[in-house]
Amino acid sequence: MRLPQFEYVEPKTLKEASKMLASDKKTVVLAGGTDLLVNMKHRVIEPRRVINLKAIPKLDHITAGKDGLRIGALTTLHDIASSPLIQEQYPAVGQAAGEVGAYAHQAMGTLGGNLCQENRCRFYNQSPFWRGVRSPCYKAGGDLCHVVKKSGKCHSAYCGDMAPALIVLDAQVKVTGPDGERFFPLKKLYNQNGKKPLSLKTGEILKEVFIPPSSGKTLYLKWRLRDSLEFPILSLSLHMETDGKGQVKKARIVFSSVGEGPVEAVSAEKMLKGKLLDERMIEKVSEQAVKEISPMRTSIHSPAYKRKMAAILVRQALEELRNAE
Amino acid sequence: MHKLNVVGKRSPMLDALEKATGQARFTDDLSLPGMLFGKILRSPHPHAKILHVDLSGALKVKGVQGAISGKDIPRKKYGIVPMAKDEYALAIDKVRYIGDEVAAVAAASLDAAEEAISKIRVDYEVLPAVFDPLESMKPGAPVIHEEVPNNISASIRKEFGNVEKAFLESDFVFENDFETQAINHAPLEPHAALSTADHSGKVTLWSSTQIPFFLRRNLATTLDIPESKVRVIKPKVGGGFGQKIDLYAKDFCAAFFAMKMKKPVKFVYEREEMFTSTRQRHPFRIRLKTGMKKDGTIHAQQFRAIADGGAYNSTAPLMITLACYFIMLPYRLENLLFEGYHVYTNKPVGGAMRGHGIPQVRFAVEAQLDMISEKMGIDPLEIRLKNAFLAGEPHPAKLLVQSCGFSDTLKKAAEGIGWAEKRGKLPFGRGVGLAGASFPSGVSNMSHISSGAVVKIERDGSITLLTGAADIGQGAETVISQIAAEELGVLLEDIRITAADTEITPLDPGTFGSGVTLRAGNAARMAASEARGKLLEAAAEKMEADIKDLEIRDRRVFSKENPERGMSFQEAVKVYQYSDRPMPIVGTGSYMPPAKEPTTLLKEDGNFSPAYSFMTQAAEVQVDTATGKITVLNMVAAHDCGRAINPMLVEGQLEGSVVGGMGQALYEDVMTEKGQVLNPSFLDYGIPTAMEAPSINSVEVETDDPEGPFGAKESGEGTQLAPAPAIINAIYDAIGVRFNILPVTPEKVLEALQKKE
After folding, report:
1. In this structure, what CATH number is given to the domain that contains residue B691?
2. pLDDT of B77-120, one tens digit each?
3. Does one domain contain both B556 and B693?
4. Which of B43, B129, B300, B331 could join B335 in a cystine, given CB atoms 3.0 to 4.6 angstroms apart?
5. Are B389 and B401 in contact (CB under 8 A)?
């Protein structure tokens, strides 16, 4: 598979990049390329122009301040996974980065790229020959969805590893657009629209991720068949703060690969608030969490299996945090 | 036999450094001036008539120099088994699976070639398709090849002994169904071909092939030119596992365009094409009925095996025949009725793959043996030992087994895994299992089945060795060189080997059926021995010694009686030259397995192979009962390879086979939906990675086979027969659940555990 032809530019500032991006709908930005280039080879993204962000300085950093941690969007996943600072303060974030793809993906892939990766679907992430067996789907520019026929929308799944671990920590993102910067919760980056999964406005580029100081414990659990290479069959991140006597003060549960964006189990979180984490509660919460996800047949794994595993993973995560008390 | 000097040494592969440093040249690394790039247009339909192919759009693309479809090529069918030819290099009248070849282009750049195939317009009349072999066998099913109206393109019904009577005599009868999945060989090097043609019309083809000489024959046939007009050269090959035992469209198209345009043309397959349009291990549906005597003797077996062959035959008749005969080893089995069918479906094509039809039936037998042993209260190890075949026993199908270390492999594998302490005694979730198997070391008698070798002793005392054998990464060139060096009494580094070039090296059938070491090794040994004799004749004359008293070892010619008397190897070469004997010193060897009732098995019984290897795999697994995930902790591979010419390479073969077998048991599955491969990538087709590989203990059992060079037999291919059932049997020991359908994914384990509760 070859890359299609495109114009290649290397702006020196983010502002310049943002203007270029805003000026043309068929322009895309390139960071590590582990997601974009494969999609281009598959011809599901055929840009006229590619903006390489890597010539822009100061986007690759991990900086600790008293108000929290800032990570530049071009920081590689490998640097995040091996950062002593992150390992100490936000181990689940480091772990999530260390579970992305294989080593080469971590060495090339960046935090910004990982958060902004395209949604995936078994009918979408295929070669033109493969897709040519049926008519094009919404995401590939057509007008139907092969996963759920007649549903009128694209059901592709968000499959990133980093987003769940960062959302449960209340991470914020800073984006640069043609008219200046915006700062908002990472969760709001995702609009649960399979065809266009990011809420970025025209010309906006992710610049930095901010993680506020965190108390409590965070876990990232990724379910896959092999311990390397794979996207999650599904994954979840759990963050929990307790009062020290086993009573839950705050809980966040966010899944990946079970919906059009990262999926937060809001009702399950509410259920936990102010409660003791006993066997019955763990059972109830894992049952509730599964009700809040809506996996579709977007991969070779069945939705029923994803639900089953979701319950098991939530239970395991809750048990692990309870036992760590 | 005197002490061996080079044979038996753990020498690194001759090309290890070259490969590790990226210097090794595979077909896609080759480039010729003015070279064009080819691409193939494939069918998007599982079954359709080709009404019209319009190449004009492709020809208009800038840089495109040629485009062809089925109507442009000679109407010559090919197939690796001559009696089962059913394929054209490009589909002529209809396409039979998604990925079938329809047209091809050659262009100045890959970009232009890719664009050009997207501009070819094909009118199809879509036909009803059939994807399930059982449906395909039913009357009224869509006919995939007009010559085979019932879609059963190869079958065998074979009875040994008296099966009906034997079942009546049996004390217990067991009957079970088994199912195996489609497995892709997944060699890391994709299929590639580069061809050039000169003005005399002679074609040279560099190809990622396991079978240069068969490829020459098939290519000449399909191009409709004499064999002498085709030269096939095999560069480095990055794995084959049986997938590169065939002519492919890329070989034909590269050569056809090269002839037509007098320019070099290269084709390289995408990974997706490797999954959709090459070969795969046949999925099998198996019903196995076994009659047992009270004392644990296997008295009768009856098989009904249906192989899902996909759209074409490839090795069909041989594959289904091997499945039948190799059920009769490694256990004594007097009464067998085997019914096997190779059935066409509109899916990717089955072909030879590591074990060739045997892993599937082996899985059924070994899994059922464990069920039997449980019901009868006999230890699974004991029941296998009791029925183990022994060397020299008369075989009901006339296989001639001269060496057999099967019982030893059983004992050593059991010992290695800790059978006595662990079987049935580990905590819930952990278990051990074992399984046995046997495999031929090459084929005794078929056309093209002899191997040749030429050994030249050069003026500086170095050795040039020519062999037709095709090293595809297993280390054949190293092993053959070790054999020649041992015979000549020189060191491994003295040998320069040239291999697998049909114009330069002697005939060789290629790498399949695990015959390379035995066949090409024996040929090299014969050639070395002849050259050695010539050298010794001159040395004996000079030393005034009896030639029979002379020996060569460590580059020194000396008298056995008086080892002080002698000269260096190089000096002996000088003596030879100065005695006015003709240079270079050449020895030739041709080896054909001895023909004691030889057979291809296709039409009659007889001895199929010059030697048979035997092996036992023992596995220890851990099942996570909360998630269903299975971890293979340890694997012991005990293998009777006759003699390990290079123990390190034998271990490499065994380890690779273990991981491959583990893939079949737990991870790999070429999934299709209406004939379309759902997971044609290394992302979704989950071959086990280094993270999944267990701790592997390889145990070589040496039985010193009388026919093998220095006693060597097959190693590696046969080992892939037993890991899957060993793992499945270990899972049963761990959680008490029997899986008769492969692969056993965490999802299935979870389901089974919940059902059990």
Report:
1. 3.30.365.10
2. 999 888 899 999 999 999 999 999 999 999 999 999 999 999 99
3. no
4. B300
5. yes
Q: What is the CATH number of the domain that holds A319?
A: 3.30.390.50
Closest CB from A132, A300, A302 relative to B684:
A300
Phi-psi group of A36: left, alpha or beta (phi > 0 → left; psi -120 to 50 → alpha; rest → beta): alpha
B342, B422: one domain: yes
Whether residue B136 lies inside any domain: the answer is no
pLDDT at B429: 97
Q: What is the pLDDT of residue B513?
A: 86
Contact list, B42 vs chain A (CB under 8 Å)? 129
Contact B44 A5 (CB under 8 A): no
Write down the pTM of the prediction: 0.96
The residue of B678, B749, B753 whose CB has the most chain A CBs within 10 angstroms, and thus the best one to mutate to test that interface, is B678
**pLDDT recorded at residue B381:** 98
Written in H, E and C, the secondary structure of chain A is: CCCCCCEEECCCCHHHHHHHHHHCCCEEEECCCCCHHHHHHCCCCCCCEEEEHHHCCCCCCEEEECCEEEEECCCEHHHHHCCHHHHHHCHHHHHHHHCCCCHHHHHHCEHHHHHCCCCECCCCCCCHHHHCCCCCCHHHCCCCCCCCCCCCCCCCECCCCHHHHHHCCCCEEEEEECCEEEEEEHHHHECCCCCCCECCCCCCEEEEEEECCCCCEEEEEEECCCCCCCCCCEEEEEEEEECCCCEEEEEEEEEECCCCCCEECHHHHHHHCCCECCHHHHHHHHHHHHHCCCCCCCCCCCHHHHHHHHHHHHHHHHHHHHHHC
Residue B436 or residue B3, greater confidence: B436
Q: How many domains does chain B have?
A: 3
Residues of A in contact with B690 (CB under 8 A): 228
Considering the domain architecture, whether residues A232 and A291 belong to the same structural domain is answered as yes
Domain range holding A73?
Answer: 57-116+157-211
Is B627 in Cβ contact with A309 (below 8 Å)?
A: yes
Please indicate whether, in this complex, the C-beta atoms of B686 and A226 are within 8 angstroms of each other.
yes
Number of domains, chain A: 2
- Stretch B353-358: mean pLDDT: 95
Tens digits of residue pLDDT in B426-458:
999 999 999 999 999 987 766 557 899 999 999
The answer on A234 and A192 residing in a single domain is: no
Could you tell me the maximum CA-CA distance found in chain B, to the nearest angstrom?
87
Q: Is A122 near chain B, with CB under 8 Å? A: yes
Query: Is the pLDDT reported for residue B604 higher than 90?
Result: no
Q: Using beta carbons and an 8 Å cutoff, which residues of B are at the interface with A? A: 42, 44-45, 98, 110-111, 114, 118, 270, 272, 626-627, 667, 671, 676, 678-680, 682-684, 686, 688-692, 745-747, 750
**Residues of chain A contacting residue B748, judged by C-beta atoms under 8 Å apart:** none
3-state secondary structure of B360: helix
Structure confidence at residue B607 (pLDDT): 85
Interface predicted TM-score of the whole assembly (ipTM), two decimals:
0.95
- By CB atoms closer than 10 A (0-12, 13-18, 19+), residue B6 is buried
Residue with token string 């502002």? A15
> CATH no. for residue B223?
3.90.1170.50
Model confidence pLDDT, tens digit, residues B638-687: 999 999 999 999 999 999 999 999 999 999 999 999 999 999 999 999 99
Look at residue A44 in the predicted model and tell me its pLDDT.
95
With contacts defined as CB-CB under 8 Å, which chain A residues touch B110?
A: 2
Q: Is B167 a domain residue?
A: no
Domain containing B108: what range?
31-127+188-239+244-276
Which chain A residue has the Cα nearest residue B672? A300
Cα–Cα distance measured from residue B283 to residue A180, given in angstroms and rounded to the nearest whole number: 59
A57/B contact by beta carbon, under 8 A: no
**Tokens of residue B389, six digits:** 């075949």
Q: Which pLDDT score is estimated for B448?
A: 58
